[in-house]
Amino acid sequence: MRTAIVDDVIDVESLLAEVERDSNGATVLFMGTVRDQNNGRPVTGIEYACYGPMAARELSSICTEAAERFATLDIVVEHRVGHLVVGEASVAIAVAHARRGSAYEASRYIIEQIKRRLPIWKREEYTDGTREWVDPTAVAVVGPES
Amino acid sequence: MHLSADAVALAAALVHDQVSSMTVTALLFASYADVLQRESIEIALPNGATVRDVVAHVRAMPGGDILPPSPLVAVNQEYARPDAVLASGDEIAIIPPVAGG
Question: Which of B31, B77, B99 sits opposite A54 (nearest CB)?
Answer without folding.
Answer: B77
